[in-house]
Structure formats: structure tokens, C-alpha cells
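Researcher: I'm preparing a figure for a lab meeting and need a structural model of a single chain. I don't have an experimental structure, so a prediction will have to do for now. The sequence is pasted below. Please return the structure as C-alpha cells so I can convert it later.
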Amino acid sequence: MPKITGVKSIRTRAAGTRVIVKILTDQPGLYGIGSAHDQNATGAVVAAIDEWFAPRLIGRDAGHIEDIWQSTFTSGYWRSGPTHNVALGGIDIALWDIKGKEAGMPVYKLLGGPVRAAAPCYAHAHGRTLQELEDDIRGYLEDGWQYVRCQYGAYGAEGMIPATEARLPRNLSGQFVRDRVFDEETYVQNVVGMFAYLRDKLGYGPKLTHDAHEHLRPNMAVRLAKLLEPFQLFFLEDVLPPEQIAYFRQIRQQCTTPQAMGELFTNVQEYLPLISERLIDFIRVRVSKVGGITQAQKVAHLCEFFGVQTAWQEGGNTDPVNQMAALHLDLASANFGIQEENDFRPEEKDAFPGHAVLEHGYLYAHDTPGLGIDIDEEKAAKLVNPERMRTPRYVAEDRKADGSLVRP
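Model: Understood. Here is the structure written out cell by cell.
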């Protein structure tokens, strides 16, 4: 059995925010890669891998994936934080890559074998106007996509109004000042109007979704889900912030609008009650953020017993390795629901040979042993811009008219 001889963290992308874990073994040419991506705490993740996890993994059997997962999960005593989880996730995914290469099989075959040929994905459609949004959706439909997420502008933009049109306090200044402010009633009205328009123009054939991005107070979230019921969404995503998930019980009592939740989840206690009480329809955790393939497959199996489907979170800030890990789970999970699409720039794809292939709304893997994806470290390094690495990460701070923060 191969033994771990080294654990390496590789930063890539312009701002260095993508972290790829590379685990080396004592068998010539046998290594694995995993995703430990964290957009905002990248340096902390690298430190956790290099200074905390790597020294305790050297010399261990690379095939003891479950034992490594369990002992690494508890190695810091405190656990389930996003930095800890994503560092562990990168290691775990890399170990599955090694296991597949050693077995001569793609990871999805090790997970039980394929139950589908490819993973259908949902597209991300946007528009500054309803007509632009409709045109963007039609473009995807004409290309063969069946599922489309609909956003009227950027996240939360449906509820943004110019500050000049809002009633602002006279002493608003400093960090509280914004060109636009968020209004919940406007948001609900515009989102409902958006889907009324889209169903009138496109009919009920396309499977449409929407991401609320946790912007709403609980009572407004319940109202939005109820008002959207006639428009038959495929799902409504992240309508509540993780601190208010108990309100999914009220949503279930009020309507049948399918609920997708979990982008911000890292702790099992966040998603366990939603699954076991059948309060959501799709689990949206990111594979690397819950601790990698080992934990994500357990989540998928748990969901299967309660009629919940998987819709692993991908998003524009993650990387091709996390996407590939999610795809292997998609192919082997009977209760797979949908995969979030994430395409990459040509130079990014070039740095990750063997990346998944996205065509006409379907994501395809390969029969290559392991994950089927690799990293060209030289090309990955060239993507990094040292100036961008020194620039503070941008995190949206939407605010209401009084200056108070809207939680993402």
C-alpha cells in the first residue's frame, strides 16, 4: 500500500485564491490532487494544510481514507469550521484520486459505479432588464440546456433601489453610504414579477430556478416561497440564512415551492435536521467545504433515505478539481438532482488537463483512473498575479436604507 511522503498546497488563479492539494506517495509517479478552495481565507487554508495537517500525514497509508478523514477531522479538537473542513476536503479528494489510480478505475466506479451517463447542469442567466434575461435564457434553451437559474441583475439586484430614491437618515455617512440600497418588499415584488413575465413568455417547459442568496428576513422568505408557488420553480435556492433554517418548517406548511439549501453549511448539525425532517428538496453544500468526497457521499446516502436530492454547490469562484469531485459523486448517486455549472477560461482549463467537459447542459467525466484531472503546476503558477494577491478580497456588503447590513 502506498505511503504518504509529502503534502503540498498549490495556489493558482489571478489572486491566488484557488488552492490545490497534491499528495505524494512512495510509489514512483503515484500522487493525487484535491480542491481546498476558499475564496476569502486562502492563506489560512494553506497554513492549515502546510503547518497542521501535512506533518501528521507523512508516513501514513494513503489507502486508509476513512481513518485519515476521522482522525484529521478531530485533530484540532474544535472542528467543522470552513477553514478546517476545506483543508480536510482537499486532502480527502486527493486520497480518492490516489485510490482510483491505484485501482485502475475512475473514482465514480469505486463509489459504486455509474447510474447515469452524464450530469445535467443548470445555467446561470442574467439580464439588466427582463427582455435581456429572457434573451439570455432562450440562448441556453436553444443550445440544449433544460435547467436555467434566473437572476434579474446581480445577486440581490431585484431588491436594489437607487439611494437617491430611498428615504435615508440625514446622518448617513462613512461605511454606511451606498449608491444603491436593498429593500425586501421591492425584492419580493420584482422576483415574483420576473417569474410571471418568464412563464408568460417561455411557458412552463423550461425548468427555472432562482437564488435568493440569504438576503431576506424569515417572514419575507416564507412570503416569497408562497408567492412563487404558481410559477412552478425547479427550486428556490438559499431563501434563508443559515442562522434561520428553523423557518423552513413554516415554508413547508405554507407551500410546495421546492427548496435548495446549503451553500454556506459546514456543520452536520446545520443540514441534518433539514434532511431528516424533509424540509428541503435539494442539498447544496460544496463537496470540499464539507470535508471532501468521503463526507459528501455520506450526505448523499443520508439524503436518499429522506427523498432529498443532491445539487452540489459549484459557483464561479471554485475550481476544476472540486467540479470533478462533484461530478464523480453525481455519476454514482441515485438521488442526484442537478449540478451547478461552472465553466472556466481557456488558460484555466489548460492548467488542469483532463478537466470535465461541459456540452449543451451536460457535464461529462472520463474513464481515466482516479479523478481523471491533473494540474500543470507551471501553467497554474503563471495564472497568479502577485499584485492581485496583495489586494483585499471583495465581499459584497449590501445595506438597507438606514445603513444596516444585509447578510449574504
